[in-house]
Specification:
This protein is an alpha/beta fold and 470 residues long. It has helices spanning 2-29, 42-58, 61-77, 79-90, 95-108, 146-159, 173-189, 205-213, 226-233, 257-269, 289-298, 307-317, 333-339, 360-363, 379-390, 404-414; strands spanning 38-39, 118-122, 125-133, 136-140, 163-167, 197-200, 219-223, 238-242, 248-251, 281-285, 302-304, 350-354, 370-376, 396-400, 418-421, 441-442, 448-449, 456-464. Helix 1 (2-29) crosses helix 2 (42-58). Bound molecules: nicotinamide-adenine-dinucleotide.
């Protein structure tokens, strides 16, 4: 009996010692941030980010804004190099569009001005609701826009007073490391704490899960497909999920058809269709279908596949198990067309084809510059079908029409986070359209185009006047 209780006491003592050692080591780990923002261990990255968050809180808002200004400047100064590197590393996108992506994120991601407190006053005094930092954020980022997402997330999250542990997509780890090193230097140069942003050097699914479950992570942000959004939403922590889309572009008989054609060609081909907001299928009312296709071809940037070419194309871009062929995702149209024996000039950006409703590319998020065009009888059928193909993602929809009733009816029926009228998809993220940009568009959790305020907690501060017991 004595032996047994001694053994238990010993065991408890050991566990207590181990916990104390772990706590001590994580405290000292937090005091030794890496020189470039990259970390081998999730524990160390979280510990350093936690220390940095306390330091960041001691800085004034003006100092925080200086850090943001330094980030914007560094991204713009290194833009061309970053864009070229990202394309080389991931194999996704077009150089000139990556350059636009980086400028957009550096210039149109809101900073601290986005943090707007609200005040309530009355006989009892003043109540102020302030947007306070959440703490350390675990951010899981996609392969599709590694530069834009890191710039955008860093500005938004740091402007709100948080620090970040990024787990980039494993196939974009080199671009992400380069991006993090640049952002890290910009932050430190402006007087920011050295572990304001941290990233895992060898990101894997297991590392992502470690971040999701780490007790030192206060909030999770997932930008990616359905599984990662589900993973963060099942974590029991505050989480933002920015998930997949399959944006339909609807064209009715009242639209300015030439303008619609130009907008769709430009929108669907930006960065070779890898943006989640890009037009992924066109649904057109039958009486204007021929003119829409004619005008798309007349832009000189869209190649219309004939029936035989369409069959070869479908066999190429859709795998036997019905997925988008990874070898074609984000590639230039010249490369994809060459695979089916078609040669086109450098000015081409998109391949289009007439498709039946059940064509796999109508339903898949293909993320390549190959777009099906489905014609339907009338606006009623167009709206019903577009809602169906959007599949409840609540992501993005585009419509070309001059009929206000049609526009409102589709907007109400599809309920997407972004609804673009008479423009290319990218107007919805502030490129040639009004409003700020975001590369984390939170449809599933409803924050919409995230910005600094999305990464805050509401904190009420009350000043009491004429206090009396009631
Ligand atoms: P992805 O879901 O494969 O990966 C995104 C991130 O999540 C990566 O860091 C990955 O390592 C991690 N991850 C993936 N599955 C996970 C799981 N089960 N548990 C934990 N972590 C996991 O997405 P992707 O292929 O990199 O990006 C393309 C997708 O992202 C498309 O569906 C696109 O629509 C979507 N996307 C959405 C937005 C938006 O703002 N809504 C922006 C960009 C991309």
């Amino acid at each position: 009996m004595t032996n047994q209780s001694e053994m238990i006491t010993d065991l408890v003592q050991k566990v207590v010692e181990q916990l104390a050692a772990k706590e001590k080591s994580s405290i000292s780990q937090g005091d030794h941030p890496s020189a470039d923002g990259m970390y081998d261990s999730v524990d160390v990255a979280v510990a350093c980010a936690a220390t940095a968050q306390k330091q960041l809180l001691k800085l004034s808002l003006k100092q925080r804004e200086k850090i943001i200004a330094s980030i914007r400047k560094a991204c713009l100064e290194n833009n061309e190099e970053l864009a070229a590197f990202a394309i080389e590393d991931t194999g996704y996108g077009r150089y000139e569009d990556k350059v636009r992506e980086n400028i957009l994120c550096a210039e149109k991601t809101p900073g601290t001005e986005d943090l707007v407190p609200t005040a309530m006053t009355g006989d009892s005094g003043l109540a102020l609701v302030e947007p306070a930092p959440v703490g350390v954020i675990g951010a899981l980022t996609p392969i599709t826009n590694p530069t834009g997402t890191l710039i955008n997330n860093t500005i938004s999250m740091v402007a709100a007073g948080n620090t970040v542990v990024f787990n980039p997509h494993p196939s974009a780890k080199a671009t992400s490391a380069k991006m993090v090193a640049l952002l890290h230097k910009a932050i430190v140069d402006a007087g920011g704490p050295p572990a304001t942003i941290t990233a895992i050097a060898e990101p894997t699914l297991d590392r992502a899960k470690e971040i999701i479950n780490h007790p030192g992570i206060n909030m999770l942000v997932a930008t990616g497909g359905k599984p990662v959004v589900k993973a963060v939403l099942s974590s029991g922590k505050k989480a933002i999920g920015a998930g997949a889309g399959n944006p339909p572009a609807l064209v009715d008989e009242t639209a300015n058809i030439r303008q619609a054609a130009e907008c769709i060609v430009n929108g669907a081909s930006i960065n070779n269709n890898i943006f989640c907001i890009c037009e992924k299928e066109v649904i057109v009312v039958e009486e204007v279908a021929d003119s829409l296709i004619k005008f798309m071809v007349e832009t000189g940037k869209a190649y219309l596949l004939n029936e035989a070419e369409e069959k070869k194309m479908t066999a190429l871009v859709v795998t036997p198990d019905g997925k988008a062929n990874p070898a074609c995702i984000g590639k230039n149209v010249q490369k994809i067309l060459a695979e089916i024996g078609v040669t086109v000039g450098e000015e081409y950006r998109l391949a289009i084809f007439r498709a039946p409703k059940d064509h796999p590319l109508v339903w898949k998020e293909q993320m390549m510059p190959v777009i099906p065009i489905v014609s339907v009888k009338d606006i009623d059928e167009a709206i019903d079908f577009a809602v169906e193909v959007e599949q409840g993602n609540r992501h993005t929809a585009i419509m070309h029409s001059t009929n206000v009733e049609h526009l409102s009816r589709f907007a109400r029926a599809v309920q997407t986070t972004i609804f673009v009228k008479n423009g290319p998809c990218y107007a919805g993220i502030g490129l040639g359209g009004e409003g700020h940009t975001s590369f984390t568009i939170a449809g599933p959790t409803g924050e919409g185009l995230t910005s600094a305020r999305s990464f805050t907690r509401a904190r009420r501060c009350v000043l009491v006047e004429g206090f009396r017991i009631i």
